[in-house]
Amino acid sequence: MKLLRRNLSLMLAVRYLNPLRSMFSIITLICLAGVALGVTALIVVLSVMEGLQDEMESRVLAFAPHYVIDQNDGFQHLGISDEQVDWHALQEKLATIPGVVSVYPMLESDAFAQSGSGRITVRFNAVEPHNDSQLQPLLPMLKEGTFDFGEGLNEECVVSATTAQALGLGLGDRLHITPVGSIDEIADIWAMIQEPLLTQESREFKEAAAGYFDGAKPAADGACTVSPERAEQMLGALFNMPSKKLRPSERDALNSLFEIIQAHPEDTPYSAEDQKRWRDILAGLAALDRDKEDGKAVKGINEMVMPVDLTIVGVYQPPENMPGPNVYMPLQIAQDMLGLSTGGKSVIHGICVRVQDANNPGPVGQRIIDMLPPAEEPDAESAIGRQWDVIPWSRRFEEWHQLIANERVMMGFVLSVISLIASFCIMAVMFTVSMQRKREIAVLQAMGATPAKIMGIFTWQGVIIGFFGALLGVLLAILTLHYRLEIQAAMASIGMDPFPMEAHGITLPAVYDPAMFAWQAFKAFLMVTAASIIPAFLVARQDPAKALRSN
Predict the structure, then answer these.
(1) Measuring CA to CA, how many Å separate 221 from each of 136, 269, 277, 413, 415?
(2) Residue 95's CB: how many other CB atoms inside 10 A?
């Protein structure tokens, strides 16, 4: 009370807001409720959205590695063979990096899954049966069965609930898997056999190859030296041949011609034996039969595809609308099925690394790069050679991650309109009150009240409504979030479930972020306060004489 007596503007503002005085105070209370509901809606929706993002991230990272280490030639990803890199030893080295939780091989591909109910395309991942750190994050998503593959030599698998439902399968049933190998390779082979033999059709190649030794300088013992211009012309003809449209026999022959040229730098004579080998290669190309070459190419497709029947030992629930494998199987079975463990070699697609905190990995990424062995140097087969690539999970799921972030921003922007509407309501109330109080304000001005005092009356009203409305909104939001599951169940009972758990496989999530709560309340407070300043400024500039004479 002492504070009110010392501050005329605040005292009058409180009297005008007294809900027992007049109808206009009841309207003010309605605007107070509008501010509170606006803040509540903002906080509840943003908390649920943030909880949904965290939940989805945790579930994605349950089956997605935090880092993927693979090799590429600048154009495509390449497998890692133990003939080139001792990836077993490399895994052990990477596991010693501080912050690394687990390291395991990556092997994934597409396949056709078939049962008596139909056939669908699936994505399968391989797991190491004895790598508990790889399997542990998957266990919370397991609906029934087990992830225990024993020694990993039996033809067993774990399928997603959506895959099991689509194929009408359950525990103990058999799943027929037909790997497609590399879909791109099969498509390239199919496109290739639609074309004629390029080495027999390309005029540029035939002229350059047939006339390669024309005009060569003779040397001792039947040798000769080819001019640099002739060699450059031949190399250009070789490089202009589209590799994806060449039959295997053609590709081998062109590689042999390239090796001959590379073995003879400028002014290096070609022996008679080299010349004979050149002519034999060209004769072999001319004698190729298209039907036989197409048969060899199609046979290569058959060698890619090795169907296998797997017994379902578990069913897991993947995140809804998230990228994830349909089938898990032991590493050895996956390698055998894809033909990556023949001849004593073992090939994987990459090495996966999981860290303690995927969102704050620290220097782990750079330490992984520093620990990788030297890449393979360029050679005749690859002008670039093999390069290491360390891919963090945020890069692999960049589009999805950005989509969720954009949804949160847009949702916050749209819901902020609610607080903006409440602010306009406050402005309307201030205008209404100011019109009804014109004579009272004129009397105050006549008694010596300054414009600042008059502005303060209505500004204080906005401050009070904004503060208590924002505070009430935060309290209502916390209460709503606390009982969100009960509210959801009540809405579901009348057929208005806004978040069906069956579709997402999770309960309604939420994140209690005090900083976000305070920020949303502060924004609403600022908007309401700003909305009260405009009518306060206009009222403070009125002419008291005219106001007293008006009805």
Answers:
(1) 72, 11, 16, 85, 89
(2) 14
Between CA 226 and CA 211 the distance in angstroms is 11
DSSP letter (8 states) at residue 483: T
Q: Which amino acid is at 526?
A: L
**Residue 315, helix vs strand vs coil:** strand
In order, the DSSP letters of 1-38 are -HHHHH-HHHHHHHHHT-TTT-HHHHHHHHHHHHHHHH
pLDDT of residue 479 exceeding 90: yes
Distance between CA atoms of 244 and 248, rounded to whole angstroms?
10
* 3-state SS class at 10: helix
pTM over 0.90, yes/no: no
State which H helix or E strand residue 126 sits in: strand 118-127
Does 385 have pLDDT greater than 60?
no
Query: CB within 8 A of 436, min separation 6: which ones?
Result: 24
pLDDT at 159 over 90: yes
Residue type, 341: S
Strands 118-127 and 327-330, by their bridges, are parallel
Tell me the pLDDT tens digit for each residue of 85-128: 888 888 889 988 888 888 888 888 888 898 888 888 888 988 88
pLDDT given for residue 365 in this prediction: 84
- The token pair that represents 32 in the structure block: 């107070």
d(CA 271, CA 297): 35
Q: Are 91 and 103 in contact (CB under 8 A)?
A: yes
In 375-429, DSSP assigns E strands to 387-392
Q: Give Cα 475 distance to the centre of its chain.
A: 35
Q: Tokens for 123?
A: 């994505």
Pair 55, 439: CB distance under 8 Å:
no
SS (H, E, C) 72-116: ECCCCEECEECCCCCHHHHHHHHCCCCCEEEEEEECEEEEEEEEC
Say if residue 315's pLDDT is above 60.
yes
Contact in structure between 112 and 178 (CB atoms under 8 Å): yes
Give which of 228, 237, 234 is closest to 212, Cα–Cα: 234
Distances (CA, A) of 355 to 98, 219, 389, 456, 551: 9, 65, 17, 57, 76
- The SS3 of residue 225 is strand
